[in-house]
Amino acid sequence: MECLPVPALPEGKEWSYEIKLDGFRLEAVKKKGETTLYSRRGNILNRKFPYVATALKGLPDDTILDGEVVALDSQGRSDFNLLQNFHSAESKIHYYVFDILALKGKNVSKLPLAERRQILSKALKPNDHISTSPAEVGSSTKILTFVKQHGLEGVVAKRLDSLYEAGRRSGAWCKYRINLGQEFVVGGYTPGGHGFDALILGFYRGKDLIFAARVRAGFVPATRRQVFAQIKDLKTDKCPFVNLPEQSEGRWGQGLTAEKMKSCTWLKPKVVVRIHFAEWTGADKLRHTKFMGLREDKDPRKVVRET
Known about the structure:
Elements: E1 4-5, E2 15-19, E3 24-31, E4 34-38, H1 50-55, E5 63-71, H2 80-84, E6 93-103, E7 106-107, H3 113-123, E8 130-132, E9 136-137, H4 141-149, E10 154-159, E11 173-177, E12 181-190, E13 198-205, E14 208-215, H5 221-231, E15 235-236, H6 258-261, E16 265-276, E17 279-280, E18 286-287, E19 290-294
Parallel strand pairs: 1-11, 6-8
Antiparallel strand pairs: 2-9, 2-10, 3-4, 3-5, 5-6, 6-7, 10-11, 12-13, 12-16, 13-14, 15-16, 16-19, 17-18
């Protein structure tokens, strides 16, 4: 089930509120004594998070959980950069489970969220690597204050009577961002050290890929090599962005004119990255961008402008 981006949190006794976590969406399926971890795109992540799979070995067979795996920093906050480079910080990895779809072979996805949460709390035994995601009911004030004080990403609101609508963004689940950041599709790059100087990014509006920014900040040599390994075989002669070339470089010099495009290498839009930024301009462009990490769990076609 997907969250609908909203400009303000819905209020009322029919809503519950959770901290928006900055990690990988993860579905855990227990079957025939084995737990398999699936990403949003259906990739198996047991090798990436073996201790999460081990921590879930107590689940009964034919049980399905939905949640977010995160890396926690020294202050207990989810840190996507840390998640990208967690090999030396295994103890910081945690799977927050926020829903249950099936228990012992019984489909519970059509029960209201409030009932599913009760079932989940009885079925899941917390340990160092797994727990249920805390939720506040009836008012967003407390959790919103906490999120702002601790510099967290945002809040997720869910209707207590909502059924689990797999793959849908119906509005029964909403997300409200405090800090600006989202996923973007890589459609090209400008050459430079360790493979590239800047990534050329965009988002989908319908079937069209819209150019939004070039990003250079946030990389170190290791992450440049990691990203370039993902994009180097995706070269194409055709620019994938429908709104290029631009007529001028614009106020902040980020516009891609026909002349600037001569130095660009274009890519098939198959790789997704997470970017933090200061603001959107009125022309669908980003200011003050910073690379945060690769998102291998995101479908490029579902990357849209969220704010």
